[in-house]
Structures
1.
Amino acid sequence: MSHVTSTIDDVLTGRVLSADDDARFRAHLRECAACKGHYDRSAAVLRLARGGPDSLAPGEAQRMEVRALRLARPIPGTMSFPWRLVFAAAAVTAAVVLTVSAWPRSPVGRVLAAGVGFRLDGAPAGKDAVVFARSELVTEKEDAAVLLEGARGRRGLLLRPNTRLSAASAEEVQLEAGRVRVQVKKAGDPFAVRADEVHVVQPGAGTFVVERRPEGTLVAVHQGSVLVSAGREQVEVKEGQETELTAGHLAPVRPASANALIEDRGDGTVWDAILRFLSQLIDVIAKALAGD
Amino acid sequence: MKFVRSLRQRDAAAFEALVRAFLPRVRRMAMQYFQSPFEQEDAVQEAFTHLYAHLDSVDPLRAESLPGWVVTSARNRILDLARQKRPTAPLELTDELVGEEEGKGLEVVVNAELSAVMGHFEEKLKPAYRPYFHAVFIDGRDWEEARIALGLSRLRTKYLKSVLLKLLQRHGPLLDVLGRERSA
């Protein structure tokens, strides 16, 4: 069984597991020193935050009560042989269907700012909406700023108009259409953007954009560097450079064109008004990355 | 008398009342013998499992002996568990009330420092996070109770809980206090 860190956090913040899940969960913790250590540290931190090492952590009394009170629940009657098998099979089928269709998703970030037409998982959403793993984010005519936050790293995403993107996790997104600007202030886990055949990995801090165009996929770097791969080809794109996937091949790395980094550099002419608005969103992202 | 009879018949409501009444004392006993919060919770569960299995040994004619029976049975079970866990360590039978008094000097120091640490932590929190933090950690409400009191959605609360837990897990001054408290 793999580590159950997220379940530990859920349990400590009030999630009540079913009796069977609770038994499996606690059996795992008895065997796994890393998970037990995480449980103990987190529980101790919550107790301290409540006023002292002996204080009751929030939810602790309820957790112990629920487990103790389960002892007094009536034991369900057993069924005769064929029915038991039929119900077991039905339960397994239902569990598989439920697991596939309703697997609980963990939050991976939140919306910092969004304009008219922004949709999260198909529903209109605005500032502070929670982004879950596998959420789909769609912009229409206006930009949106999103913060993705994982255990090791924060990334600010600026979704340009007419963009469709899904957040596989806090460390990876899939760009289905449009253009996204990614900003990382402090190096953490690598961040990846997939767009068609292109796989862009940002190993450290920096800013880059990925844009899906009719003729191919563009990757341009404003700060830092990224590794871009497509099939067996891989190139490193550094500050001020761009590459593009066209006809199944990555173009050689070249200096970024005027429009490739429009959000950060502009062209000094007609874009000025738009850039002022974009710079406000970029400021929002920068503040969120700094934890303000 | 009626309560003891209900307990002997393993009536769920009676057992629930017993758990609620004795949980704080049983928890204190578990804290005396186990350092790990996980093991403390396991010990509490084992103690109540033991009590539930032996409810028929409660004397219905001596209802006044019920508290003593609960405390002694729970303590014996917890001691057995502690001995299984650490067969070589000497473990003494102590009254759990004595345990309540132990370490109070340290606790006062820790509490004063903690108050400052938590006050600073709350100040640094984003304003949007503060009401929920305050309700849970300062007012002492449960996670769900605080959600209802503040009229928050479940989705928003799930996010707030996740953020607050992560911030607390990484809060250096709090971890410093935890480290000192563990080594004390």
2.
Amino acid sequence: MTHSEGDMKKQFILLFLLILVLSSCQTRSAELLIGEAWARPGASGDNSAVYFVVDNPGQADALLSVGSQISGAVELHHSMQQDGAMVMQLQERIEMPANDRVELEPGGLHVMLIALTRDLKAGDTFDLTLTFARAGSRKVVVSVREP
Amino acid sequence: MSIGTTGLILLVLLGGLFLQRVDHLKGAQIVNPKPAPEIHLIDQNGNQFRLSDWKGKVVLLFFGYASCPDVCPTTLSELRRVRSMLSDEQAKHVQVVFVTVDPERDTVERIQAYVSAFDPAFLGLVDSLETLEPIYQAYGVFREINTSSGSAAGYLVTHTARVYLVDTDGNLRLTYSFGTPPEDIAHDIRILLKE
């Protein structure tokens, strides 16, 4: 093996390692990022809502369902203006477009907590499990606070 | 241009600024305001409520329901913020009134627990659908029970989500669409309380 062949081999190995490092960075940065999740206070038996922001730096995904022990039922809903009135519609899924951000916020997309199993007071926290079509299950801790 | 002309132009410009500052209400103004349609219902303490008894105060009316998880609590939280932005003296002259659009489920007890969680000073009003319907009509409130939503919540109520402002003379004066910044409502109340 000549001197220059040895150098080329080293360069190939370095290039291979570089690609490996970069691709692993890419995988990590392409994960869904779920921003601070918060819920409104509410009394046991009443309804409440959870809001959060999802950043999707990777391929298109979709939020399929949400689960929690905090209420009898947990649903995805969308509040929207229709002919001057506010309509709330149950959502089968919430699309998470590639390289985009989806905000669940008051007066828009939200997670509806139906029949709270306990009082939710400002400062409390509870777990919520989000199930995505691609990313699978993700657990988030929800903080209860005033808006 | 003479000094006199320049002075006149300056006066007009300053006058325009002054007028704009005084008269610039942020809510949707009702042209030729008329007395607000009477509301005679039962409050969360079981007492009779008559809107016409509240002259001297600015009344902020909202039509919603206690099972509503998003739009109604968002609005009530914002109305609480409006009161907190005012001085104690100004806040004393503001009454928030929540009228149910879901008389089937909103009992006196339910509305009591619901509104007092936002602010004990808020009033929640209930009554039979028969008594409420003419009030919805008078205020142009759309209300529709949606039983086919597929939600475990039973049924949802589609409803108008505007805030109505009744001034200290009892006139229906302004309305605010959902999502109006609380700063804008507080701004208008400060102006109206000076009138």
